[in-house]
Prior knowledge:
Elements: E1 2-11, E2 19-23, E3 31-36, H1 41-45, E4 53-57, E5 60-61, H2 67-80, E6 82-91, E7 127-133, E8 142-146, E9 158-163, H3 168-172, E10 180-184, E11 187-188, H4 194-203, E12 207-213
Antiparallel strand pairs: 1-6, 2-3, 4-5, 4-6, 7-12, 8-9, 10-11, 10-12
Amino acid sequence: PNTKDLDVFLRKQESGFGFRVLGGDGPDQSIYIGAIIPLGAAEKDGRLRAADELMCIDGIPVKGKSHKQVLDLMTTAARNGHVLLTVRRKIFYGDKQSEDDSPQAFTQNGSPHLNRAELPARPAQEAYDVILQRKENEGFGFVILTSKSKPPPGVIPHKIGRVIEGSPADRCGKLKVGDHISAVNGQSIVDLSHDNIVQLIKDAGVTVTLTVIAEEGEEVATLPPPS
Length: 227
Protein backbone atom coordinates (compact mmCIF):
# COMPACT_ATOMS: atom_id res chain seq x y z
CA PRO A 1 0.00 0.00 0.00
CA ASN A 2 1.04 3.59 -0.56
CA THR A 3 1.75 5.80 2.42
CA LYS A 4 1.57 9.50 3.11
CA ASP A 5 3.21 11.44 5.94
CA LEU A 6 1.42 14.27 7.66
CA ASP A 7 2.15 16.69 10.51
CA VAL A 8 -0.56 17.15 13.12
CA PHE A 9 -0.28 19.99 15.65
CA LEU A 10 -2.43 19.51 18.76
CA ARG A 11 -3.05 21.78 21.75
CA LYS A 12 -3.51 19.95 25.04
CA GLN A 13 -6.94 19.97 26.66
CA GLU A 14 -7.64 19.23 30.33
CA SER A 15 -8.07 15.57 29.38
CA GLY A 16 -4.75 15.48 27.49
CA PHE A 17 -4.17 15.15 23.75
CA GLY A 18 -7.04 12.69 23.31
CA PHE A 19 -5.47 9.55 21.84
CA ARG A 20 -3.80 6.33 22.97
CA VAL A 21 -0.44 4.98 21.81
CA LEU A 22 0.07 1.31 20.83
CA GLY A 23 3.20 -0.71 20.05
CA GLY A 24 6.82 -0.21 21.05
CA ASP A 25 6.84 -3.55 22.90
CA GLY A 26 10.02 -4.74 21.17
CA PRO A 27 13.09 -3.07 19.63
CA ASP A 28 11.74 -3.36 16.07
CA GLN A 29 8.09 -2.68 16.84
CA SER A 30 6.54 0.40 15.33
CA ILE A 31 4.51 2.86 17.39
CA TYR A 32 0.89 3.33 16.33
CA ILE A 33 -1.98 5.64 17.22
CA GLY A 34 -4.55 3.57 19.13
CA ALA A 35 -8.01 4.72 20.13
CA ILE A 36 -9.01 8.34 19.48
CA ILE A 37 -10.86 9.57 22.59
CA PRO A 38 -14.33 11.02 21.87
CA LEU A 39 -14.45 14.85 22.25
CA GLY A 40 -10.68 14.94 22.90
CA ALA A 41 -8.16 17.28 21.23
CA ALA A 42 -7.26 14.76 18.50
CA GLU A 43 -10.88 14.06 17.55
CA LYS A 44 -11.77 17.78 17.44
CA ASP A 45 -8.74 18.42 15.20
CA GLY A 46 -9.95 15.57 12.97
CA ARG A 47 -6.69 14.69 11.20
CA LEU A 48 -5.31 11.90 13.38
CA ARG A 49 -6.61 8.37 12.67
CA ALA A 50 -6.36 5.15 14.64
CA ALA A 51 -3.66 2.88 13.10
CA ASP A 52 -1.55 5.82 11.86
CA GLU A 53 2.12 4.97 12.44
CA LEU A 54 3.79 7.52 14.73
CA MET A 55 7.10 8.69 13.22
CA CYS A 56 8.12 11.78 15.26
CA ILE A 57 7.06 13.67 18.39
CA ASP A 58 8.13 17.34 18.28
CA GLY A 59 10.74 16.44 15.67
CA ILE A 60 12.20 13.51 17.64
CA PRO A 61 12.02 10.19 15.70
CA VAL A 62 10.34 7.45 17.75
CA LYS A 63 11.54 4.48 15.66
CA GLY A 64 13.22 1.95 17.94
CA LYS A 65 12.00 3.66 21.11
CA SER A 66 10.13 1.70 23.78
CA HIS A 67 6.49 2.33 24.69
CA LYS A 68 7.63 4.02 27.92
CA GLN A 69 10.10 6.32 26.10
CA VAL A 70 7.30 7.42 23.77
CA LEU A 71 5.00 8.10 26.73
CA ASP A 72 7.82 10.14 28.35
CA LEU A 73 8.05 12.28 25.18
CA MET A 74 4.28 12.80 25.28
CA THR A 75 4.50 13.78 28.97
CA THR A 76 7.12 16.42 28.10
CA ALA A 77 4.88 17.71 25.29
CA ALA A 78 1.92 17.83 27.71
CA ARG A 79 3.95 20.08 30.03
CA ASN A 80 4.51 22.44 27.09
CA GLY A 81 0.77 22.37 26.36
CA HIS A 82 1.11 21.37 22.69
CA VAL A 83 2.67 18.72 20.45
CA LEU A 84 3.64 18.31 16.79
CA LEU A 85 3.14 14.70 15.65
CA THR A 86 4.44 13.32 12.36
CA VAL A 87 2.43 10.25 11.34
CA ARG A 88 2.52 7.88 8.37
CA ARG A 89 -0.79 6.66 6.98
CA LYS A 90 -1.31 3.68 4.70
CA ILE A 91 -3.57 4.35 1.74
CA PHE A 92 -5.34 1.32 0.34
CA TYR A 93 -6.84 1.36 -3.12
CA GLY A 94 -9.92 -0.74 -3.68
CA ASP A 95 -9.05 -1.61 -7.27
CA LYS A 96 -7.04 -4.77 -7.79
CA GLN A 97 -4.60 -3.47 -10.37
CA SER A 98 -2.20 -6.02 -11.82
CA GLU A 99 1.50 -5.20 -11.85
CA ASP A 100 1.78 -5.26 -15.65
CA ASP A 101 -0.93 -2.64 -16.28
CA SER A 102 -0.05 -0.24 -19.05
CA PRO A 103 1.98 2.67 -17.67
CA GLN A 104 0.02 5.23 -19.71
CA ALA A 105 -2.83 4.90 -17.21
CA PHE A 106 -0.63 6.92 -14.87
CA THR A 107 0.75 9.56 -17.28
CA GLN A 108 -0.17 13.18 -16.64
CA ASN A 109 -1.78 13.92 -19.98
CA GLY A 110 -3.08 10.40 -20.69
CA SER A 111 -3.40 9.05 -24.21
CA PRO A 112 -6.59 9.72 -26.23
CA HIS A 113 -7.70 6.08 -26.18
CA LEU A 114 -7.26 5.73 -22.40
CA ASN A 115 -10.36 4.08 -21.02
CA ARG A 116 -11.71 5.67 -17.82
CA ALA A 117 -12.26 2.21 -16.39
CA GLU A 118 -8.48 1.67 -16.25
CA LEU A 119 -8.10 4.35 -13.59
CA PRO A 120 -8.52 3.36 -9.93
CA ALA A 121 -12.24 2.76 -9.55
CA ARG A 122 -12.50 3.57 -5.88
CA PRO A 123 -11.02 6.29 -3.68
CA ALA A 124 -8.51 5.35 -1.00
CA GLN A 125 -10.04 3.45 1.91
CA GLU A 126 -9.32 4.57 5.45
CA ALA A 127 -8.48 2.19 8.27
CA TYR A 128 -10.21 2.43 11.65
CA ASP A 129 -9.88 0.58 14.94
CA VAL A 130 -12.54 -1.67 16.46
CA ILE A 131 -11.99 -2.60 20.12
CA LEU A 132 -13.72 -5.81 21.27
CA GLN A 133 -14.09 -6.87 24.89
CA ARG A 134 -15.24 -10.35 25.84
CA LYS A 135 -16.21 -12.07 29.06
CA GLU A 136 -14.04 -14.93 30.34
CA ASN A 137 -16.62 -17.54 29.23
CA GLU A 138 -17.09 -16.36 25.62
CA GLY A 139 -15.08 -15.85 22.45
CA PHE A 140 -14.82 -12.60 20.48
CA GLY A 141 -17.29 -14.07 17.98
CA PHE A 142 -15.73 -13.60 14.56
CA VAL A 143 -14.00 -15.86 12.03
CA ILE A 144 -11.09 -14.61 9.92
CA LEU A 145 -10.63 -16.03 6.43
CA THR A 146 -7.23 -15.85 4.77
CA SER A 147 -6.88 -15.88 1.00
CA LYS A 148 -4.95 -18.99 -0.13
CA SER A 149 -3.38 -17.26 -3.13
CA LYS A 150 -1.08 -14.24 -2.78
CA PRO A 151 -3.17 -11.11 -3.35
CA PRO A 152 -2.10 -8.18 -5.56
CA PRO A 153 0.00 -5.45 -3.89
CA GLY A 154 -2.03 -3.29 -1.51
CA VAL A 155 -4.81 -5.86 -1.09
CA ILE A 156 -5.09 -7.40 2.38
CA PRO A 157 -5.53 -11.21 2.32
CA HIS A 158 -7.40 -11.46 5.66
CA LYS A 159 -11.09 -10.70 5.99
CA ILE A 160 -14.03 -11.33 8.32
CA GLY A 161 -15.75 -14.52 7.14
CA ARG A 162 -18.40 -14.73 9.83
CA VAL A 163 -19.76 -12.73 12.77
CA ILE A 164 -21.50 -14.87 15.40
CA GLU A 165 -24.89 -13.57 16.55
CA GLY A 166 -24.96 -12.16 20.09
CA SER A 167 -21.14 -12.22 20.39
CA PRO A 168 -18.94 -9.18 21.26
CA ALA A 169 -18.17 -8.77 17.53
CA ASP A 170 -21.91 -8.69 16.76
CA ARG A 171 -22.79 -6.42 19.71
CA CYS A 172 -20.21 -3.77 18.79
CA GLY A 173 -21.99 -3.29 15.44
CA LYS A 174 -18.80 -2.20 13.63
CA LEU A 175 -17.66 -5.49 12.04
CA LYS A 176 -19.18 -6.81 8.83
CA VAL A 177 -18.54 -9.96 6.82
CA GLY A 178 -16.07 -9.01 4.09
CA ASP A 179 -14.24 -6.32 6.11
CA HIS A 180 -10.46 -6.63 5.74
CA ILE A 181 -8.31 -6.81 8.89
CA SER A 182 -4.85 -5.22 8.57
CA ALA A 183 -3.63 -5.31 12.19
CA VAL A 184 -4.31 -6.91 15.59
CA ASN A 185 -3.41 -4.82 18.66
CA GLY A 186 -1.37 -2.46 16.49
CA GLN A 187 0.70 -5.26 14.93
CA SER A 188 0.39 -5.59 11.16
CA ILE A 189 -0.94 -9.03 10.16
CA VAL A 190 -0.78 -8.47 6.39
CA ASP A 191 2.12 -10.93 5.97
CA LEU A 192 1.25 -13.30 8.84
CA SER A 193 -0.12 -16.81 8.36
CA HIS A 194 -3.67 -17.64 9.45
CA ASP A 195 -2.39 -19.73 12.41
CA ASN A 196 -0.20 -16.86 13.64
CA ILE A 197 -3.17 -14.48 13.52
CA VAL A 198 -5.37 -16.90 15.50
CA GLN A 199 -2.58 -17.18 18.11
CA LEU A 200 -2.21 -13.38 18.26
CA ILE A 201 -5.94 -13.02 18.98
CA LYS A 202 -5.79 -15.78 21.63
CA ASP A 203 -2.84 -14.04 23.30
CA ALA A 204 -4.80 -10.77 23.43
CA GLY A 205 -6.78 -11.93 26.48
CA VAL A 206 -10.22 -10.37 26.99
CA THR A 207 -9.66 -7.21 24.89
CA VAL A 208 -8.51 -7.06 21.27
CA THR A 209 -8.09 -4.09 18.91
CA LEU A 210 -8.68 -4.87 15.22
CA THR A 211 -7.63 -2.43 12.52
CA VAL A 212 -10.38 -2.67 9.91
CA ILE A 213 -10.65 -1.55 6.30
CA ALA A 214 -14.31 -1.72 5.35
CA GLU A 215 -15.11 -3.67 2.21
CA GLU A 216 -17.74 -1.52 0.54
CA GLY A 217 -20.25 -3.15 -1.72
CA GLU A 218 -18.65 -6.59 -1.84
CA GLU A 219 -21.10 -9.40 -2.37
CA VAL A 220 -21.13 -11.56 0.74
CA ALA A 221 -22.28 -14.52 -1.37
CA THR A 222 -18.88 -14.68 -3.09
CA LEU A 223 -17.06 -15.54 0.15
CA PRO A 224 -15.86 -19.14 0.48
CA PRO A 225 -17.37 -21.04 3.42
CA PRO A 226 -15.18 -21.18 6.56
CA SER A 227 -13.01 -24.29 6.39
